[in-house]
Design goal:
The complex is a heterodimer of chains A (62) and B (172). With 62 residues, chain A is an alpha+beta fold. Chain A has one domain. Chain A is built from one helix and four strands. Chain A has a two-stranded antiparallel ribbon. Chain A is elongated, with a radius of gyration of 21 Å. Chain B has 172 residues and is mainly β. Classes of the chains: A alpha+beta (62), B mainly beta (172). Chains A and B meet through strand 2, strand 3 and strand 4 of A and strand 1, strand 2, strand 4, strand 5 and strand 6 of B.
């Protein structure tokens, strides 16, 4: 019984720690002046720093 | 975005494209990123000062204020130049902050003297000569406000076989 309980605790701790994590080192960008009727673009880098695969589910326009 | 599943320790790029349309003045945007991380969505922030009169900005005026590198005939368009006119009374350092390095190379002078005009250049990379795209580059000045300017770079290609760069045949 004690062995089973210990195993369950270990499994529970293990699953709690295996979590995805998103890190965005540079999360803001200022374009400064830009003309009307144009498209400007910038690339942000997304880092997976957790213990599990990070899935990007959706990006919603601001 | 290159990929939607990022392995532990890996990274990916997220390109945010902002269409300035008829916006005016300072426009902040905060796209949200929903992941399997849980909790609240994370966000990135962009800010743009959309100007109606790009031909009368301060402390510099860029001519042209956007670069059209489109190619509709057999004549290759590979490079474009722009003029940066310092209309202030102080010398300004110029720092390239960001550019679409997979599409073009940007060469800018290190500084522009008070009242002077300097030239910069955008040269397309070989592997994008057959591509149509809308990208941009951003530079920052050393004035008190650290003013930034973003120059849109647009290319539309409608002819076939534009992808070969002939030596000494650079269109302007």
């Amino acid at each position: 019984m004690a062995v089973v309980l210990t195993l369950l605790v270990i499994l529970a701790v293990g699953s709690a720690q295996a979590a995805p994590r998103l890190l965005i080192k540079e999360s803001s960008f200022d374009f400064g002046f830009a003309p009307q009727n144009s498209k400007v673009s910038h690339i942000f880098w997304l880092y997976s720093t957790g213990d599990d695969t990070l899935k990007i589910l959706k990006v919603k326009p601001g | 975005m290159e990929k939607t599943a990022i392995a532990v320790g890996d990274s990916t790029r997220l390109e945010i494209i902002f269409s300035t349309k008829k916006y005016r003045n300072k426009v902040p945007k905060s796209p949200k990123i929903q992941t399997n991380e849980g909790g609240t969505d994370k966000m990135v922030r962009i800010s743009t000062t959309v100007t109606e009169r790009p031909d009368s900005t301060y402390p510099v005026i860029n001519t042209p204020y956007k670069l059209d590198m489109s190619q509709f005939t057999g004549k290759q368009v590979i490079e474009k130049r722009l003029k940066i006119a310092n209309v202030s009374d102080e010398d300004l350092d110029i720092t390239l902050v960001a550019f679409a390095h997979e599409y073009f190379v940007v060469s800018l002078p290190e500084s522009v003297g008070a009242g002077e005009t300097v030239e910069g250049e955008v040269v397309l990379r070989d592997d994008v000569l057959e591509k149509s795209f809308e990208k941009s580059f951003t530079f920052e000045l050393s004035d008190e406000n650290h003013s930034r300017f973003t120059i849109p770079v647009k290319r539309t290609v409608r002819n076939v076989g534009a992808g070969t760069r002939a030596a000494g045949d650079k269109g302007k």
